[in-house]
Structures are given as structure tokens and as C-alpha cells.
Amino acid sequence: MAQNIQNNPGSNHGNKFEQLGTILPTPNEQRTASGAPGVKYWQQRADYDIKCELDENTQTLKGSETITYYNNSPDPLTYIWIQLDENQHNNLKNANYQSATKMPQSATDKQVEGFELKTADNGFGFNILKITDAQGKSLKYTVNKTMMRIETPVLKSGDKFVFNIDWNYKIVDRIAKGGRGGYEYFPADGNYLFTMAQWYPRLCVYSDFQGWQNHQFTGRGEFALTFGDFKVQMTVPADHVVGSTGECQNYAQVLTPTQLSRFNTAKAAKAPVEIVTLAEAKAAETKKSTAKKTWIFHAKDVRDFAWTSSRKYIWDAMNQKMSNKDVLCMSFYGKEAYNLYSRYSTRVVAHSIKTYSDFTIPYPYPVAQSIEAANGMEYPMICFNYGRTNEDGTYSETVKNGMIGVVIHEVGHNFFPMIINSDERQWSWMDEGLNTFTQFITESSWDNKFPSKRGPAYAIVPYMQLPKDQLEPIMSNSENIVQFGPNAYAKPATGLNILRETIMGRELFDYAFKEYSRRWAFKHPTPADFFRTMEDASGEDLDWFWRGWFYSTDVCDISLDEVKYAKADFPQPAKTKTEKPMVGKPILTDDDISKQRNREDKTIKFYTDQDLEARDFYWKYARGLVQVDSSKVKTKEIRLPAEEFTSEEKAKYSNKHFYELNFSNKGGLVMPIIVEFTFKDGTKTVDRIPAQIWRLNELKTSKFYALDKEVAAIKVDPFRETADINESNNTWGAVEAAPSKFQMFKAAQAAGRGQSEGVNPMQFEVKKGK
Which residues form the Peptidase M1 membrane alanine aminopeptidase domain (predicted)? Predict the structure, then answer.
């Protein structure tokens, strides 16, 4: 694999700092050495005119579409490839990618059913009724699992080709069977919620760097698509509410006068306005219209189209002013999510598109929407998220933060990859990783105490500590990744955060990241385009970082092996005791390097400080502003951390103030060395040594200091910003040992955040008299 390509094998230098060279594709007139599109860059286009009808009683969808395909490539084409993602659910026409299975010790009847050998067609997937050209002449086609090849007349460069496809399929129960789109049934009220995603036959990408992208759809690697304009007409039950990619062209015909008036008010509102209210949604659930309505939507310059339909929806909206336009932010959700979504969803949508715009390009579309559908998936201008409350309307802090995080993440996918249109089937990290990184920034600017799970360097350490044979390079094909979440989401996001905070600095990184977004908006970038642009726009040689973090499975374990004339002792053994977790006291969660700098940066205005409606029970709870009854929390036996060094163990070091620090690279990954000196008088200073200190010896290095004051302690990576997997070898002298995972949990307990399973402090709030 790429990580084994070495320039000077067997040597302690000349490998990790060499240029990527032939690992990257050769620049050409389509893609330049600077990472920008070339003078002869081209890409295809496909416009769609679709009519479809949803039958709620039979859970089926039928449709007809006219596609206009533009061959902007220099190549003559004799066939085109179409994606049939719905075939994923068919037991005979799916991609048939299988993983090893073993006999379970116990299983439910549903699980056993999944292991049964089935040879009869289960009836799911596309039924292709006919394919014709513009004159009605049948076209020959071949279905290969989740792909379809249509044979065409020779399409020369510059030609356009118009053809039609008629189709239908049985909609899958998404909750029971999984998948990107489908329906959810609510037995309590007898209603359905339809999320129509990857629902129509659509063009594969034909590109300069790989020809046809016709990899099978297995359910993981998502998709790559061409840009185009859409006109879509959806015929649904008359009492359904429809949310969709694009702008509705006939609200006046499908909404009541009252709803239309509310919609017009919402277009200029600074806070969410309910267009369909909770009371109206509850009333609609009790009746089922037999009539139908047709909703018409247009969308320009999008790579895909998704929609949702249900009579269960509450619908709210507000305006978000951008530098280039006003954007209508909207949310659709059932009563099951009301207390969370009515307060947060649309506000989070607005905050997300504004923050992402600041770091990439101005959001180009007229609307942005969040749909509560018990999952997480993204499409242009619309995304599906989770976040339902308990039956009493309360919710746990975990659910609240998870809901906010997933809305930010899925809305953020409008930028990566819906606009900056990378190939998700080949390089999942280019959309998931870049988006997770920007999500981390957006979460931090929502509330600097937001407990982000991905982004801070220390959060990736448990993954990096896995045995070497369980790690895989980020530059792996989506279908072949075992640790998908850490590999495609967390590790690339962490790498970008390390670049921004530790290696490049915010100013250089932010400029280069924005330049990449600008260059490749509405185009098809590859990893090489990203790597080259980040270097080209910043003036930083980062090949060593791409090589180590993206192409290898090396980890960071920088050991402070020796400080001349002194050595460190070890802590005493750990003990256990019984302790009762507490709730109700404040905790600081802004201790990573990004949050520290956010707090110091007076130009950052946190959303929860500007919109007081975004402050709920947990915002106050994190700051100790509410009281809770902790009597219901059970006691636990817990393991105490090892004790600190005793005073006797704090040796007196040499009176000389000359120090030689000797380091070794035990993990293989070269990284900057951040050294914190604590002097005998209690003062501290930090020295940031660039990673290039390893270039002449990638295994060991040293640094000599002439200091004015006597050193009491030295700590490597004091802010935990390099993802060092073994902090026990990072210290020298009378310095606190790095907190273990237990210590962090214990600290959370003491501060009131150590919630045990099922504890929901919101239910214990001590209500004060009015």
C-alpha cells in the first residue's frame, strides 16, 4: 500500500519527509500542480424533469422522468451509466458484497430470517417499465445489480441527449430494513413518515480522472453525481405536508390561506414561525384524506434531489441573512420531537449555514431544511436527523447535544459534498472528514462548552491506541474500512484540527481551506486537489503530514526519554472506593486548545449568548444555575487514579539551567513537539518545535536549552493537541500525570455531569416559585 512506499528504506531518515511524488497523480491541463482546476477542466451535466406519485396505502412510488444529458467531455460516448440505489433492498439485484458471518449464540426470529437463503425475488428495488429516447424509440439497457447501462447513439463532445425512464418500486420500511430512504410507521396514531432519498434513477459521474464512476452501491459508500437543474412534481395525499430540495412553485395551491400567510411572515422572521402548528399536526393525524395534491419544486445547480411527506409534520421557518442573500431555514418534525425541534432545529440550521459560509463559500441556495426522521442523512437543501423527547416532553443532555450535533453535521453536508462535490464511494473522508471538522468549529461557535466528540486531538486517541492490525489508512476505499467512524469521520477531522491549531496556525489554514472550497465549488475534486491546494495557498510543505496522517497507520507517541542530569519516578498503585455520583454542579468543557482560543478570541460571538431562546435547562445546568434532586442516583464502586508524586519523590535537580531533552518517536508518526516548562518559581513557558526537527533522524531527536530559570517540571503536549497515544512518557519532574479516561469521568462526576445510565437530570429540576 502507499504507506510502504519509502524513498530510503532501512534508514532512519529520508522517508517521512520526502515529497509524495508519484503517490499523487501527474498534474495535467484538467488538474494543475497547484491543486486548481486547469484551463481544460470539464464536467458533465444532467437536467431532470420528474413526475411521481406516492401511494400511502400500498407504500409504493411510481414515476416518470425525462433526463437531458450534456456530454461536455472531449470523449465520444456510446453508453451512459445510471445508479439504481433502491436495488440495494432487493435480495437478487443488490451489490452482493458480503462479509463473513458466524452462528450466533442466540437470535430473534427476525435475525434468523436475515440468515435464511432466499432465491425468490422479495419484490423490492426498481421495476424499470420502459426507457425511450425523445422520439419515443426504445433504448437497449442492461441492469447490473445497482447499476444500469443504457446504450445510446454516439454522443460526440458537445452533444446533448434526451431520454425518458418510467419506473416504480415498493418503498421499504426504513426502521426495520435500514437504508437511506423509505418509510417509518407510527402504530400509536396509524400514520407514516416518508423520506424519499436516492429514489429515482440518476446519472453516474463521468470524469477526467476515472471515466465512469459505476461502483456498486452497497449502502455504505454513498454516491457521486453530476450537477443539473430539477423540476419535480410529487402527487401525495392531500393532507400531507411536503419538504423538499429546492423551492416550492405552488404553495398558494397546496397550503391553506392561513398557512400561506404564516409562511410569508416566516420569510422575514428572526425567530422560528410555525407554519403548521402542533395542534394542527395532531388533528391531521386523526383523519386521513382520500384526496390528492401535487406539489411542484424547482432546484438549480444541485447534484441530487430528496423530499419528505407526512401528515404528522409540524413545520416552522425563519430567515437567516447572509452576506449574499436571505436564506429561508425550515424544520419539519412530528409531535414526538416537538420540545427539542421547536426550540433548536431551525436555529441550528441558520447557525450552521452561516458558520460554514464563513469558513468555505457563501451558501448559494435559497432554503436549508432539517427533517426529524430518526436517522441522519443529507441531500441538497434538505437533511434527515434524529432527536425525539421522552413521553413527558423532557430529554436527556445526551439526546439534546446529539440532536444539535447531527443537525449541524447533516446541514454541513450541503457544502461537503453537495457543493464541493467529491466522490463519496471512493473517498468517504473527503466529505465526512472535512464536514466533521467544520462541524466541530460550528459546534464550538454555537456554545464553547459544547461537548464535541470528534475534532479535539485527544478524542481520537482510543482509536489510535488499537493494535496496528486494526488500523487502516484514511486513504482506503469506503467499502474496505473496518473502523468506519474513526477512519472516515474522526481521524481526518482531527488531522485538520491539528493542522489548524498546531502546525499551520488559524490564519494560514483558514485561508487555504477557503481557497480549496472556492476553487472546487460545483466541481469534482480529488484528494490530490485538496492536498495541493492546502500547500499552494498557505506556503507550507505538508507532504510529510499527508504521508503520515492520511496514507499510513503510524501513530503519535513522542517519548521524552531523558532530561540530562535528572529522571522521573513512577506513581503509586491505584486504589478503589465507593462514591456517589453527583449532579447539579457546573463543569468546564472548554479545556481543549480550540475552545481555549475561542474563549480568548473576543471577535467570536457564541450563538447561545446572542439568542437567549437557545439556552435551555442544560445550558443552565452546565453553569450551576439550576438545582436538581440527586437522591435517585445510585452509588458505584469506582477506581481511583494513581496518587501524585510525593514531595520526597520530587528530586532536587542541578542548579545549572542548561537542559538537553532527548526524544524518541515510538509511534512512527512525525509530529511537532510541544514542550511546557514549569519553573521553580511557579511560572511556565511553552516552546513549539515544528515537526521538521525529525527530518534528519525520524526515530530520535534532541533539543538543547539555555534557560534563565531553574526548571521544576517538563511536559510534552501539555494541551493534548497531537493525539499522543501514551502520555505516561511525556513528563519529567514534579508534574501532574496526564488524566486517565477514568480521571476525566471522575472529574465530570464531581462537577455534576457523571450521569449514570437512565439518569435524566431535567426530570429532577427543583422548580422555584414564581
Answer: 353-549
Quick one: the chain helix, strand, coil %, rounded to 5? 30, 25, 45
Q: Do the Cβ atoms of 201 and 84 come closer than 8 Å?
A: yes
Query: Residue 416, exposed/middle/buried by CB under 10 A (0-12, 13-18, 19+)?
Result: buried
CA atoms within 13 Å, Cβ hemisphere of 186: 18
pTM of this structure = 0.88
Between CA 521 and CA 295 the distance in angstroms is: 30
The enclosing H or E element of 446 equals helix 429-446
Residue type, 118: K
C-alpha cell of 514? 477557503
Task: Map out the domains of the chain with their CATH numbers.
Answer: 14-41+420-553 (1.10.390.10), 555-580+650-752 (2.60.40)
Q: Is the CB of residue 138 less than 8 Å from the CB of residue 164?
A: no
For residue 54, the SS3 value is: strand
Asked if 750 and 586 count as a contact pair (C-beta separation under 8 A), the reply is: no
User: pLDDT tens-digit profile of 730-740?
Assistant: 999 865 544 44
Cα distance between the two ends of the chain = 67
From 432, 425, 339, 318, select the one nearest 388 (Cα to Cα).
339
Model pLDDT for residues 77-129, shown as the tens digit of each residue? 999 999 999 999 999 999 988 888 888 888 887 778 778 888 889 999 999 99
| Residues in CB range of 533: below 8 A, 6 or more apart | 34, 35, 36, 512, 515, 516, 519, 520
Alpha-carbon span 342 to 386, nearest angstrom: 13
Cβ pair 377, 222 in contact under 8 A: no
CA distance 543 to 526: 16
Local structure of 359: helix, strand or coil? helix
Q: 317, 269 in Cβ contact below 8 A?
A: yes
* Residue 68 · residue 57 · CB < 8 Å: no
CB atoms within 10 A of CB 482: 11
**CA gap 148, 142 in Å, rounded:** 6
Provide the β-strand partners of residue 195. 182, 308
pLDDT digit string (tens) for 398-408?
Answer: 999 999 999 99
* Residue 630, φ and ψ in degrees, nearest 5: -95, 10
SS3 label, residue 344: helix
